[in-house]
Amino acid sequence: MKRSVQFLTRSAVIAAAYLVLTLPLAQIAFGPIQFRLAEALTVLAAITPSAIPGLFVGCLISNLMNPQNLGPVDIVFGSLATLLAAWLTWQMNVKLLGRQDQSQPGGGKTGRIRQTSIWFRHLVVLSPAVWVNAIVVGFYLPWIIPDLTVTAGFRIWTIASIFLSQSVVIYLIGLPVYLALKKMRLFVAEDV
């Protein structure tokens, strides 16, 4: 019982944080060029499984409350893309880094190759939020923006734009947060 309350509480806090980091910055958080600061929270899915529903609900509510109202396609598929990315992030974390704490680059072992390997795995673990959103959102977004002529070139540009903006948010903002939280060991007691 206590564990489920903790899980739901963490999920709710993550959903609320996602919403708070998205809606005040709506002008840059939605559209073909989007810089959604809340996407930095997707790194939490590599630390705790409670981030998976939290990110999904936060994204769903943000897309529902989008002042530009991109419609049901964005609400459904954008939110599902976030859900898929969060689930993949958790799964990749378990497979590539294991359940043991790998917060320190190098994982307690010395050697430049080992450190490079751990850093690379951290980057890979955090990558689903970049490529899932770029492909899914980048594909449908040109079709739902009003008064826009959709060409193959524009769709590729949209995918590339979202890939770039997601990369900036995830790796320049999210990665340091992720490493700091892993080092602080806030979520160590939470196990699936």
Share of residues in strands: under 5%
H/E series, N to C?
A: HHHHHHH
Helix content: 55-70%
The residue ranges in which pLDDT falls below 50 over 5 or more consecutive positions are: 100-109
Number of discrete domains: 1
- Which whole number gives the mean pLDDT? 86
Q: What's the CATH topology name?
A: Arp2/3 complex 21 kDa subunit ARPC3
Sketch the major β-sheet. none
- Alpha-carbon distance between the termini? 14 Å
Total E-strand runs:
0
Structural class per helix/strand content? mainly alpha
CATH class: Mainly Alpha
CATH structural architecture: Orthogonal Bundle
Task: Tally the helices.
Answer: 7
Structural write-up:
There is one protein chain. By secondary structure, this protein is mainly α. The protein has a single domain (2-184), classed as Arp2/3 complex 21 kDa subunit ARPC3, CATH 1.10.1760. Helices cover 67% and strands 0% of the residues. The protein is globular.
Topology:
Elements lengths: L1 H21 L3 H4 L21 H14 L7 H26 L14 H14 L2 H17 L7 H33 L8
Helix pairs in contact: 1-3, 3-4, 4-5, 4-6, 6-7
Q: Key terms for this structure?
A:
7 helices, about 190 residues, mainly alpha
Task: Briefly summarize what is shown.
With 192 residues, the chain is mainly α.
